[in-house]
Design goal:
With 49 residues, the protein is mainly α. The chain has three helices and no strands. It is elongated. The chain starts with a helix and ends with a helix.
């Protein structure tokens, strides 16, 4: 069963943004991906995992 057009459009946009974020994050070193601005904040690696 196909998704309604507005949901399908939103899904496509989310997939596109996800691909952009992953492309940006793939260039990070492990140390950069693991860095946290503070103990309460998440690292980039935690967010995109």
């Amino acid at each position: 069963m196909p998704l309604p057009k507005p949901v399908d459009a939103l899904w496509a946009e989310l997939q596109s943004v996800r691909a952009e974020v992953l492309k940006e994050a793939e260039g990070l070193s492990q140390g950069q991906a693991d860095w946290r601005p503070s103990e309460k904040d998440w690292s980039v690696g935690e967010v995109v995992h």
